[in-house]
TrEMBL record:
Lineage: Bacteria, Bacillati, Actinomycetota, Actinomycetes, Micrococcales
Protein's UniProt name: Phosphate transport system permease protein
Biological function: Part of the binding-protein-dependent transport system for phosphate; probably responsible for the translocation of the substrate across the membrane.
Transmembrane parts of this sequence: 28-58, 78-107, 119-138, 179-203, 251-272, 292-314
GO biological process terms held by the UniProt record: phosphate ion transport
Species of origin: Microbacterium paludicola
Domain ABC transmembrane type-1: 83-314
UniProt superkingdom: Bacteria
Residue spans of biased composition, Low complexity class: 1-15
Length: 328
């Protein structure tokens, strides 16, 4: 007696319609995890914004006489110099770090031998692991005093430029604790992230574009200018905005390097410097109480909005360049 086995028939679909994809458990778990992660980010962001708004409401009361931070001063009048100092220090750092980061990234990706490029890339990445308090100690105790002779030379020879001028009957800072020193320390701190992102973007340039430029007789620099930089433009903007966000939120390094005061000035070498929001919160939070704590939380809300605006601007700039892929 013989037995026959029949295999199950494969599911058939109507003619002209594509077969339905089988949903495997692994696919469902992965898609659910990805969706949940995205929702968690949105929930956390909304929770932080809601916390800042609720906790900062007492700072906007008309009567601020009992506020040990404002001391009778309106909140907007108090926070404006801090917003200026935050943006000014971050802008100084970005202007100084951007060309250096681009140069290092181009050297690693297109000029240096492979072993040297690997060593330099490792050192650059290692800088990102240095704690900010170490940068602050280095800036306050070593780097700042080293810059004092340079500040005096700049004031004596370029004092006619408003940036390098100092108030009348005053001299440049003798300790090196100026907004320029803070900007330089921030530039060193944001250099690794800018360099790493730009390096990876440069390495993704299509080889056919580079080889085509070289085959047409372009020099290495002309090839970089015509093929690499246009392809990496949106990536360079993203790297700059991420670095700017890091500089805007830096706390301890600026608090240790800067000799702050509540004023708005563009002078880089003066002993009187605008403070930043993160440094002010870190320095004044231990003594704050009641409405004073709400005032510092409100300053954090302003910093949150500024950082959000910077990231939104970066996304807008990148989206405008999205039509250029460089690979087609």
């Amino acid at each position: 007696m013989t037995t026959t086995t029949t295999e199950p028939e494969a599911p058939t679909s109507a003619p002209g319609t594509p077969p339905k994809a089988v949903k495997r458990p692994g696919d469902l778990i992965f898609s659910g995890t990805a969706l949940g992660s995205g929702l968690i980010i949105l929930v956390v962001l909304a929770a932080v914004a809601l916390f800042l708004i609720i906790q900062s409401l007492p700072a906007f009361k008309p009567d601020t006489t009992d506020n040990n931070i404002l001391r009778g001063q309106p909140f907007l009048e108090w926070v404006w110099p801090l917003v200026f100092g935050t943006l000014w220090a971050a802008l100084i750092a970005l202007v100084i770090a951007s060309p250096i980061a681009l140069g290092i990234a181009l050297f690693i990706s297109h000029y240096a031998p492979r072993r040297l490029a690997s060593a330099i890339g490792y050192v650059i990445d290692l800088l990102a692991a240095v704690p900010s308090v170490v940068f602050g100690l280095w800036g306050a105790l070593t780097f700042g005093p080293m810059l004092v002779p340079i500040y005096r030379w700049l004031n004596e020879n370029l004092g006619w430029i408003p940036l390098f001028a100092v108030p009348e009957n005053a001299a440049p800072s003798g300790s090196g604790k100026t907004i320029l020193t803070a900007g330089l320390v921030l530039a060193v701190m944001i250099l690794p992230i800018m360099t790493a992102i730009c390096r990876e973007i440069f390495l993704q340039t299509p080889k056919l574009h580079e080889e085509a430029a070289l085959a047409l007789g372009a020099t290495r620099w002309e090839m970089i200018r015509m093929a690499v930089l246009p392809f990496a433009r949106s990536g360079m903007v993203s790297a700059a905005m991420l670095a700017l966000g890091r500089a805007l939120g830096e706390t301890m390094a600026v608090a240790m390097v800067l000799a702050p005061s509540s004023l708005v000035t563009f002078q880089l070498l003066s002993t009187v410097n605008p403070s930043t929001i993160p440094a002010t919160i870190a320095l004044r939070f231990p003594e704050a109480h009641g409405d004073g704590t709400a005032t510092l939380v409100a300053a954090g809300l302003i910093l949150f909005l500024v950082t959000f605006g910077v990231n939104f601007l970066a996304r807008w700039i990148v989206s405008r360049r999205a039509e250029f892929s460089g690979a087609n």
